[in-house]
Write a structure and sequence with these properties.
Distance between the termini: 51 Å
CATH class of the largest domain: Mainly Alpha
Largest sheet: none
Number of helices: 10
Helix content: 55-70%
Radius of gyration: 18 Å
CATH superfamily of the largest domain: Winged helix-like DNA-binding domain superfamily/Winged helix DNA-binding domain
């Protein structure tokens, strides 16, 4: 079924179209939710809540971009809203802790398996993990992240800086980044 037919079927509340949409996009969206969640059960709850919103708002999709991107935005906002209900992000780090942290953008190699990186990202504190996902993976600006999480733009920047440093340290301890790469950053394994 084409994307357009799928959307129109979902607008008509056609169960077969809704099932196909869910089956087509749920694996990618579960991976997205898993990056924000504490565990798989929470990720599945986020996924279900996100798809409820997708089906409720499907009539607003204007075909001006990819359906997957539209669904992804809903899922990200759903994850953030769930996290905001349960946690405060501004408590994760003070800007003073992020000042002067030497981080080289090349210390997180792009060749790592996605599962290994996701597992390492999940080891970060909630605020760091959320900002890292929103900025580095989803492409939101620090200003947008600040508004979403109800934190200052500078707090978003500091959490991102600290998240990169902590992720580098985790990857190094797991021998996923060579120690010589870490030596460039001035961090110790």
């Amino acid at each position: 079924m084409s994307e357009e037919a799928l959307v129109h079927g979902c607008i008509r509340n056609d169960a077969a179209a809704q099932q196909e949409l869910y089956e087509r996009y749920s694996p990618q969206m579960l991976a997205l939710c898993y990056r924000y969640a504490r565990n798989r059960e929470d990720a599945e709850d986020m996924l279900q809540e996100g798809f409820i919103k997708v089906f409720a708002q499907i009539g607003q999709f204007r075909h001006s971009g990819a359906l997957e991107g539209w669904i992804r935005r809903i899922m990200v906002h759903t994850c953030i809203n769930i996290l905001k209900k349960n946690r405060k992000f501004s408590d994760s780090v003070d800007i003073i802790h992020a000042v002067g942290l030497p981080v080289d953008e090349e210390t997180i190699p792009s060749i790592l398996q996605a599962k290994q990186v996701v597992e390492c990202i999940r080891m970060l504190p909630l605020g760091y993990r959320t900002v890292l996902n929103l900025y580095a993976i989803e492409g939101f600006s620090h200003k947008e992240i600040g508004k979403m999480l109800e934190i200052g733009e500078s707090t978003s920047r500091s959490q991102y800086t600290r998240a990169k440093a902590m992720l580098t340290e985790i990857l190094t301890r797991r021998d996923l980044i060579p120690v010589t790469t870490v030596a460039k950053t001035g961090m110790t394994p």
